[in-house]
Records
---
Amino acid sequence: MSNAKAYSTDAATSPLAPASIPRRETGPKDVHIQILFCGVCHTDLHISRNEWGGTTYPCVPGHEIVGRVIKTGAEVKHFKEGDLAAVGCMVDSCRCCENCRDGFEQFCESGTIFTYNAPDKHLGGMTYGGYSDHVVVDEAFVLRVPGNLDLAACAPLLCAGITTYSPLRHHKVGKGQKVGIVGLGGLGHMGVKFAHAFGAHVVVLTTSPGKAEDALRLGADEVVISTSPDEMKKHANSFHFILDTVSAPHDINAFFALLKRDGTLTQVGVPAQPLPVQVFSLLHNRRSFSGSLIGGIRETQEMLDFCGEHSITSDIELIPIQKINEAYERLLKSDVKYRFVIDMATLQ
Ligand code: NAP
Ligand code: ZN
Ligand code: ZN
């Protein structure tokens, strides 16, 4: 066992503060990674503050991890000391249930082991995430980072990237389709980049008029201010697919009304309260409402390789870890362009 430096919180109402946490010895199949950068996902805030229930304290968030391999176990095949490596939202699963075998470890029937706030079968207690200086992870859950991209800007691909790539791929978003991305935050801005790269006509639906110019630069073809009923009305019944990334309560029915016949709205944002669904808004145009949770390991690697080939990274604001509590407050004000990433060199 080793001790890692980390930032942790002890209660829903406490700020994150420096802490020391245990990491297991590097087992035969393990990769020991020095964490260089970790993205800040809105999920980190939801879980730190127990907004969904189920948080166990102390809690060390962080599931957008990139770094360098400092040690490998004897049976590790695909990584060696000095390689770049990444870890996303999961660190283990049963690997034998139907979902695991099909590459959907995020739906493991025995319970996915998430990167933080999940039972740790090695040390007991709970898993601790990436707001720390190193981590030990089974090779099967470690990803390869394309060498041609800025490393810090790759970190958000591990959650914001895969969470938007996966549903856009599953719903076969591409040329000839009008696709809406609701909310231009960490997830949303990656959704815009992917939908644009897949050839769709991309419309950003935002509550922040000040983000319109950025939306177009990121790859959107049009911007709609979603708080304006007149602007929304112009797009009624016209979208093939809408991806909703909003983290707070909002009127989802206003977005259903934008879907054309057989259109789908996929929800990836997870407000702490249930979203009221007006059934009539689904009946008209035979609309579908679905969800999506991150993506499996195989698809996450596919997404990273796609990003390498198409030079896609996240637009980030690099912060020292001492600014993490301030970053959370700014997240709540939708004041991030478009993902905070922690420079772990500042964790001394
Ligand atoms: P984020 O960077 O804070 O972005 C959320 C965006 O939602 C904001 O930028 C804002 O966009 C919009 N928004 C915020 N408050 C709003 C309000 N009151 N009304 C309307 N729009 C509002 O968050 P994120 O990291 O992208 O995460 C978004 C959500 O996805 C979170 O709930 C997170 O937990 C969840 N998530 C889910 C998965 C999954 O697997 N399904 C994975 C990761 C994260 P505008 O300023 O453009 O309006
Ligand atoms: Zn996340
Ligand atoms: Zn399983």
---
Amino acid sequence: MTSGSTPPASAAVRSVTVRVPAKVNVQLAVGPPRPDGFHDLANVFLAVGLYDDVTATEADGLRVTVSGADAAAVPTDTSNLAARAAQLLAARHGREPNVHLHIAKDIPVAGGMAGGSADGAGALLACDELWGTRTDPEELLGICAELGSDVPFSLVGGAALGRGRGERLTTLSVKGPLYWVFAVADGGLSTPEVYGEFDRLAAGRTVPEPDPSPAVLDALGSGDPADLAAALGAIDGGNDLQPAALSLRPALAATLAAGTAAGALAALVSGSGPTCAFLAADESAAADIAAALAASGTCRKARVAQAPAPGAAVVG
Ligand code: C5P
């Protein structure tokens, strides 16, 4: 496999582009470690309007290229979920994974926003379309679950409750637009390390089975950001991985404080971090919070995004 930074150029070769959203975990309730090392979750996923575009182009072998500001941080070997997705889909249909996958990356890398998962889901859909393999939607979801716990949600988007390790989805009702601001940190955090730190911090106490907060689900359904913020406040912010992320990256406390001081209704680490997510009252509050965060020196950049966003979809 080779790496590079240019998208496929030839107009004569067939290609398919799929757009896939990032996610924020509005609530992430984490249970004790299971025998297989994973943790059972009550994972309230919300897709947000930051996107990666994955283009699948006919090729003689499998190769991955990436463009975008953080392209250098994205692997182009088979540790990239997009490459794994092509391999799994090809194997299901008894064919070679001959495809050039180009990822135009806009989702923060290793940021707790499911950027890698998005690329897996995007590549799966793009290859299915390019190869004309017409995989059954349930089977596509099964391949997503094999790729990673967050990948099925990247395919469906919107809002969903993820049980099991996060892969068993139930669609949730959500009313938008909800405005979020994301503070992108320097460098990423490793998801397994954050879960490991969660276990270390939980040692000696009983971790309850994870359950979604009915108030959070109600507030998502009504689309009132103040209600959602109040519901998150009542469950200590909503993200059980947040103390672990803060323990590994104490500087995130200053980021959360800067967003709160700028008027965010709720401030939380996104998933395993280190991206921090801020819920805004409306569009203009979101712009103010983003400007304040960018000026605060507590993050690398700030992005505004609306939710809910649609799941993976063919756009070209
Ligand atoms: O499923 P995925 O490959 O995204 O998981 C990455 C790592 O995160 C796992 O190897 C595991 O350490 C941790 N994880 C977990 N419980 C989950 C999801 C992920 O412990 N429900």
